[in-house]
Amino acid sequence: MLTAQRRALILESLASGGRTVVQLAGELLVSESTIRRDLDALALDGKLERKYGGAILTSGSRATITDSGREEGSLAQERDRDYDLRIRVAEAAASLVEDGDIIVLDIGLTTPLVARALHGRRITIITANLEVLDEVRADDAIDVVLLGGALRRNYQTLVGSLTEQAVAHLNADIMFLSCTGVRDEHVLDNMAVEAPIKQALIGASARTVLLAHERKFPGTGAMRICTLEDVDTLITTEGNTSEELLRRRESGRKVIVA
User: Fold this and answer.
1) Are strands 65-66 and 102-105 parallel, antiparallel or unpaired?
2) For residues 236 and 89, is the Cβ–Cβ distance under 8 A?
3) What angle in degrees, to the nearest 10, is found between the helix axes of 3-15 and 32-44?
4) What's the pLDDT score for residue 49?
């Protein structure tokens, strides 16, 4: 990855809620010392303010990151944000699943809620999301396929080349796709290590259902995952007034408003 691209991804990650140095290193698959050098360079450019043991964005930041792992705007806070919207999307997603289906639940905060809504169903769930596993590990009705890979502890996900290799052997009925934003007809994500996994899982699935509540339009994201044309069904919420939603409805492509 080019230095400029990596630094753009760092700024994108910080703007979307803040990351620790450890998290940034894990997401971008580089050393913590590389992240610290990037933060210093970005500070010289005036894009962030370097503090003892960490940094904050000079504008648009919702979190402080520190080398020790302390952060404001934690994953717990991120999980609480937009919870009601995500619940509505998750319940609509679960209604699309039929007994016997093989489904993929993507990395993200909405997919564990989909898993929760599917308790007791005779289905197979494929995932690299450990929060999904936690939801269904005790449910005897659900068969679970956990994709291997490198553990990102702060996000409770498995990523990397081993995960991508495992996807090559899969065949699923539906992928429930998460994202950080939708802009100019593109589905976006801000995690470089997740993008190839998401793309591979789309290719391994007969249908793709995008889970994107109203706050995801336009949302954020430096990585293009796919286009809205690649999505069979869009599930969003009633506050979505975006041009992307209007165009999709006008074209007759499937939309579910939860």
Assistant:
1) unpaired
2) yes
3) 80
4) 63
Closest CA to 18 of 59, 54, 64: 64
Which one has a higher pLDDT value, 153 or 61? 153
pTM: 0.73
190-229 burial: b if 16+ Cβ within 10 Å, else e = bbbbbbbbbbbbbebbebbbbbbbbbbbebbbbbebbebe
For residue 46, which phi and psi values (nearest 5 degrees)?
80, 15
Q: Cβ contacts of residue 102 below 8 Å, gap of 6+?
A: 123, 124, 126, 171, 172, 173, 174
Q: Report d(CA 108, CA 180) in Å as an integer.
A: 9
Tell me the residue type at 107: I
**pLDDT (tens digit per residue) in 78-107:** 666 789 999 999 999 999 999 999 999 999
Q: Is the pLDDT of residue 74 over 60?
A: no
pLDDT digits (tens, 9 = 90+) for 38-58: 888 877 766 766 655 555 555
User: Which candidate, 205, 199, 196, places its Cα nearest to that of 233?
Assistant: 205
Angle at which helices 32-44 and 21-28 cross, to 10°: 110
Structure tokens at 79: 């999980």
